[in-house]
Amino acid sequence: MATMTHQPSSNHHKSTKRKRKVPFAFLFLAWAFPKIEALYPRLAFSWGKKLFFHPIRYKHQEAEQPILRQAKRQTIPYKDERVRIHTWGEGPTVVFIHGWAGRMGQFHQFVPKFVEAGYRVVGIDVIAHGYSSGKRADMVDFANILKAVCEQQGEVEAVVAHSLGGAATMFSLQNGLSAKRAVIIAAPTMHELMMRAFRTRLRASKKLADYIQYKIKKAYGQELKDFFLPSYYQKVQDFSLLIAHDKRDSAVPFQHFQKAQELLPQAEFHVTDGLGHNRILRDEGMIEKVLEFVKRE
C-alpha cells in the first residue's frame, strides 16, 4: 500500500522539542562499563541485564497532568504488581499502550480528540512505568498486560501503540489479541538492531547481548527474535494495520519501519520527517491520521 509522508510545521517542531534527561548514574555506567567488563565480566553482565530489564521511570510532563487528572482510574493485578488503567469518555473502546520507559501521559494530546469523536479511551501504564508499581519489565509483560486489558474491556475497536508497545501489540495480534485494527507508531521490528543499539549505549561487547538473549530463552523457552515481526509476519498479514514512523527517529531507526514495509506490504504506512521518536505523539497531523484510520468502517 502507498506510503503517505508529512512534515510538521516549523513552529510546531520548535515548540514541542524536548530532550529527555538521562540519569547521571546511567551516563557514568556507560563510561565505566567497558572497563568493568574487561576486568569483572560477571559483574558487568549482571549490571547489563539489570539495565536491560529495568526501565528508567521518567517524570510526567506538566502538560500531561490535566488530562490524567480527568481520567477514571483503576488498577488490575499482574504478577505481584498493580497495573494502572486510565479511562476517559464513552463509546467504542480504543486501547493505548506506551513504549519502553514511557507512560500513558505521552498520549495526552490524543485523548481529547478521541473522546470528542465518540470513543472510550483506555490507557495502560505497564508495570515499572507511569503510575504502575514495579521496577522490572520486559516485552512479554507488555504483551500479557495488553492482552489482559483488552479481554477485560470486551470488544476493542483499535489498539494504538508506541515503540516497544507497538512490537508487543504485533506479537499479541498473532497470539490471540482481540482488536479490530491496530496503529503501530515508531516500533522496533528487528531484534538484532535493538540489541546493537543497547550495546552501543553501554559500549559493551557482543558477549553481553548473547548473555541477555540466553537469559530470555531460559525464562520463556523462546529466543528474543521470536518476539519480533520477521518471525511471525505471515500470521498478521490479514489484520488492519497503520504503521507510522519518523525518518529521523534516533531511538528506533527508520530501518525498522522499512522492514515492516517489506514484510507487510498490505498494511497502510505513514511517514513523518523531523519529529523523532517521541514528538510524533504530539503532532496534530499524526493524531488526525490515527483518528481517521480508527474511524474507518
Can you describe what's shown?
The protein has 297 residues and is α/β, with parallel strands linked by helices. The protein has one domain: 3-Layer(aba) Sandwich (Rossmann fold). It is 41% helix and 18% strand. Strands 1-9-8-7-6-4-5-3-2 form a 9-stranded mixed sheet, sandwiched between helices. Helix 7 links the parallel strand 6 and strand 7 (181-185). The longest helix is centred in the N-terminal third of the chain and has 16 residues, at 24-39. It is globular, with a radius of gyration of 19 Å. 42% of the residues are buried.
Proportion of strand residues: 15-25%
The CATH topology assignment is Rossmann fold
Q: Mean pLDDT score, rounded? A: 92
Amino-to-carboxy terminus distance: 18 Å
Integer count of domains: 1
Number of strands: 9
What is the helix/strand order?
EHHHHEEEHEHEHEHHEHEH
Number of helices: 11
* Gross geometry: globular
The CATH superfamily is known as Alpha/Beta hydrolase fold, catalytic domain
What is the architecture at the second tier of CATH? 3-Layer(aba) Sandwich
Most strands sheet: 9 strands, mixed
- Helix percentage range: 40-55%
The assigned structural class equals alpha/beta
> What would you call the quaternary organization?
single chain
Please identify the top-level CATH class: Alpha Beta
